[in-house]
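Marked as duplicate of an earlier ticket. Keeping the data here for the record.
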Amino acid sequence: MIGLIWNIRGPGQPGKIQCLCDTIAKANPDFIGFQEAKKELISEGLLRAVDKHNQFTWHFLPALNTAGGILVGFRNDMFEVIGFTNKKFGVVSTIKTKNDKFVWQLVVVYGSAYPEFKVDFVAELHDIMESASYPVLVCGDFNLVRQQSDKSSGTINPHFAFLFNDWVNRWALLEISISNRSFTWSNNQNNPIFAVLDRVFTSVDWDMHFPLSTLIALPRVGSDHTPLVLDTGARKVNCPKMFRFEKWWLAQAGFSQLVQDVWTKNGDASSSIENWRCKTRALRKVIKGWSINIEAAMKKKKKSLHMEFDILDVKSEQNHLPPNEFERMNLIKKKLDDIWKRKRLPSGRDLETEKS
């Protein structure tokens, strides 16, 4: 069972939706918890973009103006959704895994960045644990640190750290530590500050059911937070990919000529309908191979850029980057944005919905 937990910092920027789609494809999650959606309403266009095959059940906690907003989703073939409860700072989902009938609760939170609301946030965390009826997984952007080493500057609010640790200890929660990164957030400045703001906690009984769980961070691109991927150690079988026409193909050099060449070279059947079938069958076969090559080149380029960015990002957590490397990170972000912008939503109407 795979979970994707990420503060996405809003899906409204150009190329951001494709970035979400790429991250979902890379993680291949069974459940998703996005924070800071920054929207009061999630459009059908956005859900169709990130869930093209309608494989997930979705639930949304609206943002207050542009603050917060949480989107959770569960694969229909993996889970039976029992119910959702919206809190001020989080969503409590009660689900049952279909393979072993295990009932548990996923709590996705977004803690306020403002000091005046942090006490209320911690109080809500206590209330959630007190009312929990099943084993619990609590995750998200807490906007709190537990100790000085959780922040590169070492400057923390000890009162809030005490309240946070008191919640962890009082409910005997276990933290699943990130295995490949020291921090989960950066302010992206020339002299960056890093912090561990995104975390995953479990109750003891949840940990006993999934004792092999691990947590890794993906490259921090598309947001100032790293996406977190939780893996409980269970394996799953992937379904074969269905052929679908992608709108972004139309913008690729040589595509129109490819279609024209295939269309004119095929179709000598006796009837018009058989001619049509012959041409479309040949076109689908050729486009599928052409698309695989284009996608492979894109994926190779994105993978290379992700790896280079991640190396520089990890390096920046330890040492101040020289100006040329800092500029290189910004250039990589721009190149990735350009790749993501090439792909579009299924229709212009969906795109206009996202802009509104």
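See parent ticket for discussion. The chain has nine helices and 14 strands.
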